[in-house]
Structure formats: C-alpha cells, structure tokens
Amino acid sequence: APEQAARMKKLQEQEKRQKVEFRKRMEQEVSQFIQATGEPRRRFQPMNKIERSILHDVAEVAGLTSFSFGDDEDSRYVMVFKKEFAPSDEELDAYRRGEEWDPALAEERRRLRELAAQQEEAELECGPAPPGPPNDYKDKYRHLIGSDAAKAAARTMEANKTYGCVPVANKRDTRSIEEAMNEIRAKKRLRQAEDE
User: Fold this and answer.
1) What is the pTM of this model?
2) CATH class (in words) of the domain with range 2-101
3) How far apart are the first and last CA of the chain?
4) pLDDT digits (tens, 9 = 90+) for 26-80
5) How far apart are CA 113 and CA 102, in angstroms?
C-alpha cells in the first residue's frame, strides 16, 4: 500500500508538471499568434479535453475568442480568433459541419436568403391565395369517370327522402321511448333505495 501511494503521488506530480509545461507552450503559441499580423485565426492540433480547457483559458486571458470543433473526442480541436476577426454564426456553423469557411460561398447563401425573403414579402403583399384546392379532382379521376359522366350523374341524383328513418323491423329495441324512460327511472329508484 505505501508503494502504491508513492507511485500514485509520483504520477500525479508528473501529470501536474506536464499540464504546466503544456500551458507554457500554449501561452507561447498564443503570443506568437497575437504578434502575427496577417493571421486572423489559428487552428490547433486535436487534443484531449483537459488540454482544450487549458487552451481556452489561455485564449481568454489573452483576450481572444476560442471555439472547439469536431465530432468525437479524439478529433476535437480548438480554433482561436482575434477579437477584431470574430467569427460570424455562419462561419461557426461551417466549422461545426466540418467544412472550410468560404466567404464567397457565405455571401452567395446570404444573397439567396435575402432574395427568398423578398419573394415571401411580395407574395404576402399580393394577398392570400384564393381558397380551394390547387387542382380539380375530376382531372385526377377522368380516366375512371369520363368527361361527362359526373355531370350526368349530378343531374339525375335525387335526395333520399327517408334518410335518417329506420324501419321498425330493423330496430333491436322495439319499446317506445316512454317505456324505455320508465324502465330507467325504475332502475334509478331501486338503486337509490338500496343505497339508503
């Protein structure tokens, strides 16, 4: 047990030293990035979660903006941006999708979105479309009903005058309404008497 505790302490000290060395190295790289005038952003190699958090901390202290990109833990990397070249939402979305940022393509997409918005506004100004289906159902079923079969059927149709009336022979319950209501009342009185 004492040997294992000593070994654990040694490993912890070694990890701590590595983190301090990594932080110093990242501070140097970030300071070089700040001094490089023609570089608006810098992409770092994929690193683990602890190293990424150290780099985010260093970037924040230096006054830079930093984001992590990548799908799985092994391929996640950090990009650091200078404040004056802060990324737009479209640029961040492109990096999240794993694409390279192309300002010309983004400008084209923005222009297409504006054009679509203008078309929607123009359609709204014209007023709503007239109510009704966009096409006639008869065109869809013309091969079944023909061209004038529906018109002929519409002329010869007459309303069923007995609609809603059921003949007595078809009824299951042949009692009158009064008889059915009297039976319901009797059952109700019987139930109330049992409850009392």
Assistant:
1) 0.53
2) alpha beta
3) 80
4) 999 988 888 887 888 888 888 888 888 999 999 998 888 898 888 877 788 888 9
5) 17
